[in-house]
Amino acid sequence: MNLIDLIDENGKCDKKIAHQYRNSYLTYSELVNKSDAIACYLIEKYGTDKTPIVVYGHKQHEMLICFLACVKSGHAYIPIDSSLPYERVKDIIESSNTKAIFSVGEFNCEINTELNDIEVINLKQIDKLCINYQGVKPDSRYKVKEEETYYIIYTSGSTGKPKGVQITLACLESFVKWGLQLININDDKSYVFMNQAPFSFDLSVMDLYLSLASGSTLFSIDKAMIANLRELFEQLKQSKINVWVSTPSFAEMCLVDNSFNRELLKEVETFLFCGEVLTNSCVNKLHERFSNSKVINLYGPTEATVAVTAVTITEEINETINPLPVGYVKEDCNIFIVDSEGKKVNEGEKGEIIIAGDSVSIGYYNNEEQTEKVFSKILLDNVEKRYYKTGDEGYLLDGMLHYCGRIDFQIKLNGFRIELEDIESNLRKVNLIKNAAVLPVMKDGKIQQLAAVVTLKEPSKEKEFKIGLAIKNDLKKFLPEYMIPRKIVIKDSLPMTVNGKVDRRGLMEEIK
Fold first, then answer.
1. Dihedral class, residue 379 (left if φ above 0, else alpha if ψ from -120 to 50, else beta)
2. CB of 329 closer than 8 Å to CB of 335
3. Which of 4, 69, 500, 511 could potentially form a cystine with 38 if both were Cys, beta carbons 3.0 to 4.6 Å apart?
4. C-beta separation of 43 from 68 below 8 A
5. What are the helix (H) ranges across 47-168?
6. From start to end of 60-212, where are the E strands?
């Protein structure tokens, strides 16, 4: 039974809750029946055309319904969060060549006027389709097959344009099987998984599909709750969360308040962290406040389906290893550490992390040039496997992977993967700016914020603070909030190294 069938099987229970969002509940029965109905429409409309379909919104029930409708009708889905700016959404839609968009959230009217032949299906139309095709089952021959693309998540790209990572059903099933073993799900118990990340961010795949595959409840937290700690904690108290899934930064934000403890989350058993560095101090606080709960550290890029390594951070590990390891590789994958020439290094030596195995993506959608740069194939035990050059630096010691940061200009900030060159390309679109360099600002070995050092096209008499504010406001047209540098430094020129490149190391010393 594949993942799609497994979720359908859970739909036979009328009262089992699949998704809770604020005070609204979606049962598995509703999830299955409504996704069936919409899938029937898509099959009728598009037949065997497998062009990906965009699903636009935030944490609404209909996001899940439309995801499943897409894959049941043979289409990969592309999640786009409604918080993304106009230019970013436009870039993704243009790159995808989609023919249909499910507009669960309020769709930008500017984009609507530029869509031409793309069908935009709004919330009212989604409801109408569910009624018109009620009780009709889609032909199972159309659903996404094991080696076909199940979803495409767009990530930051060095050219200033996002890249679409294609994940197959087989990749996703490999992750789900491993993830459920990791948590050690008890079939006799009902679980609640927390969903913190937007569905357009690959961390959400962890909670979404581990939850749906195990017949659990997904409890979604939205951006409004995250901005209001009091409301967030009220929601958490009622949630009955067993499995916490988030970036470490989100947990650290909660830990600032002393009321974030066992009294608030009485039933939490497991904390799953991925997307950025988990610090020893964060784990120490979690162990103090949530004794008997497991803290699991995971590692993996979007291109390898969420995560490929994991380790439970015991008190002993937390006290003896700093920084913390990211764990042991899953059984159907291999990790190699190579030097700049691609040769394997000795145990304990640092190098680039290479991932090979069943979790690795088939490449970037409609982007052969970028795919060929980082994806290839390798023979492992006489079986051909895909591999991915992560651009991450790390080392293996006693079978465990240790992550040391990025080799190139890609960083993780608050769990979001960001290409610094992406921000730089978009900064240059701002009328005031001649050139720009974006740098991570570090504290205690962790990236705290981004700083942009810019040169202007024309001298200005305005104060640097006001110019910086104007630049940030203009940049919001092109980039999501998490990619906007917090600090803007204006210089007459950018310093160069002897080989003609921007002296980033020198700039970092200046902005400390």
1. beta
2. yes
3. 69
4. no
5. 61-72, 86-96, 109-113, 123-132
6. 77-81, 100-103, 119-122, 149-155, 163-168, 192-195
Question: Are 1-144 and 411-511 equal in CATH topology?
Answer: no
d(CA 57, CA 60): 7
pTM of the model: 0.88
CA distance 326 to 299: 6
Q: Cα–Cα distance between 17 and 192 in angstroms, integer?
A: 10
Q: Assess if CATH 3.40.50.980 describes domain 1-144.
A: yes
CA distance 355 to 330: 11
Fold observed for domain 333-406: Luciferase; domain 3 (2.30.38)
- What CATH architecture is 411-511? 2-Layer Sandwich (3.30)
Q: Residue 272, exposed/middle/buried by CB under 10 A (0-12, 13-18, 19+)?
A: buried
Rounded to whole angstroms, how far apart are CA atoms 148 and 156? 23
CB 389 within 8 A of CB 352: yes
Whats the size of the chain, residue-wise? 512
Asked if 105 and 60 count as a contact pair (C-beta separation under 8 A), the reply is yes
Q: Is the Cβ–Cβ distance between 354 and 388 less than 8 Å?
A: yes
What are the tokens at 363?
A: 């490449």
**Nearest one of 189, 195, 232 to 210, comparing CA atoms:** 195
- Each of the 512 residues of the chain gets a pLDDT tens digit; together they read 899 999 999 988 878 999 999 999 999 999 999 999 999 999 999 999 999 999 999 999 999 999 999 999 999 999 999 989 888 999 999 999 999 999 998 876 666 667 778 999 999 999 999 999 999 999 999 999 999 999 999 998 777 789 999 999 999 999 999 999 999 887 778 899 999 999 999 999 999 999 999 999 999 999 899 889 999 999 999 999 999 999 988 998 899 899 999 999 999 999 999 988 899 989 999 999 999 999 999 999 999 999 999 999 999 999 999 899 999 999 999 999 999 899 999 999 999 999 999 999 999 999 999 999 999 999 988 999 999 999 999 999 999 999 988 887 788 888 888 888 889 989 988 999 988 999 999 887 788 899 999 999 888 888 999 999 999 999 999 999 999 999 999 998 888 765 556 788 888 888 77
- Element housing 37 (H / E): helix 28-46
| Domain boundaries, given as residue ranges, for the chain | 1-144, 333-406, 411-511
Between β-strands 416-419 and 410-413, what pairing exists: parallel, antiparallel or unpaired?
Answer: antiparallel
DSSP assigned state of 82: T
165 residue type, one letter: V
Q: Six-digit token pair at 303? A: 């291109």
